[in-house]
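Lab notebook page, bench 4
Experiment: in silico fold of construct C2
Operator: M.H.
Input chain length: 387 residues
Purpose: comparison with the prior construct
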Amino acid sequence: MRDWHTHVFTSTYTADVSGVCSVMYELGGMTILHDPSGCNSTYTTHDEPRWYASDSLMYVSGLDEMSAIYGDDSVLIADVIRAAGEMKPKFITLCGASIPHVIAFDYKGVAHLIEKETGIPVLPVPTDGMKSYVSGVGLATREWIRRFACVRAEKRSGNVNLLGITPIDFSTQENVEDLKAFCSTIGREVNTCFAMGDTFENLQNIYKGSVNLAASSAGRIPARFLYGKGKIPCVEGLPVGPWMRTRLQTALSEAEATGKNLRAYEELPDESEVLVIGEEIFAKSLATEINHLPDPKSRESDSSTRKARALWPDVNEGLDEDKLLEEIGKAKIVIADPLFRAACRNKDTTFVELPHEGYSGRIYRKQIPRFLHENFRIGDLLKSGKM
C-alpha cells in the first residue's frame, strides 16, 4: 500500500487500543490506556455497548506534554500503583495510543516496575493507536493466555474454544449466545469464550480445548499461540447460514481429528456481482454462504445464480479508498455497514445495510441482526436492499 491515504467517503475502523479494552472488559482486571485523553472517550462512547450496564476498571493516564517530552514515567507509575491499591484488581493491562509510541514508551519496563511495587500481574500490550482493533484484541488475548492459562490442563475431546469474541464484531451478548447454541446443536461443548460471557477462572482452562474456532480475525493471534504451545488446531469461519453451519461442523471435526488448521469458508472469485465489505472472517463466511444459496430455477439444491466476493480492511493500513471505490464500482449488490453508502456512487447498485460496530460504532447498533441465529437467512437480507 501507499505511504499516504486520502479518505473522502469512508471512516476508519476501531483502533487497537479499543480492542485491548474490549477484550479485557469482563475479566476483573484494570486497564490503563496511556494517552493524553480522548481515546478513552472514543472507546466508551462509541465502541462499548456494555459501558452503561456493567462496571469495569478502565483508566486513562492523562499523559501531559512535559512528561512526554522528558520521558518521565514516574507520574504514570505512581498513579497506577495508587489506583491498584484502592481497587485491588486481579491484574493490570497497560496499553497506549500514538503519543507513547512516538516517544518510545517502554511498556515492558514500566509493567515490570508496577508489578514489582504492587505484586499484581501487569500485562504490557504495546499498541500504538494506528492499527485496527484486530491487532489490539489479538495481542491482549495472547498476553493474557501467556500469563494466566494453565498449559498443563488435559484436553477434553469434543469441546471448542471461541476466540476473537468482542462487542466490536458481535455487538451484543445475544449474538454470542447464538454462536454457543450452534456449538451445542452440533454436539460441541464450549470450553471457553474469549471474552464475552465468561470468567477469569474458566478462561484459565483454555488449554483443555480440543479445537479453536476463530470467529473473527482478532482470534488469529491467540489461535497461533495456542497451536504453538498446546497443539490445538483452529478453524476459521462463522455459521451465518445453513451451508456454513454444515461446513463448520465438518471442519471442526476434521481439525480435531487431523490436528490441522482449517478455513471453513471457501476461496472466493475475484469478480462477482455481490461484494461483501467487513471484518475478514465474517465477510468471507457470508460471501461463501451467498455462493451456495439455492437457485429456485435449478434442480440442484446447492446452486446459486449469484456469486459473491469479500473486501476487508488491512490490520495495519485499513481500507485503501481508491481500491474500495474500484471494487464497489464493479458490483451490482454491495453488502456493508451503512457508512459505506457514501462510497456507492452508481445509482443502479443495490446497497444492503449490514451494520458493524467496529466501523460505525453505536450509530446503527439497534439495526444489527442476529446474524448467527439458526433462522438468519442472507437471502432475506438481500431482498431488503435499497439504493
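Observations: The mean pLDDT is 90. The chain has three domains: 16-130, 159-263, 274-383.
Next step: discuss at group meeting.
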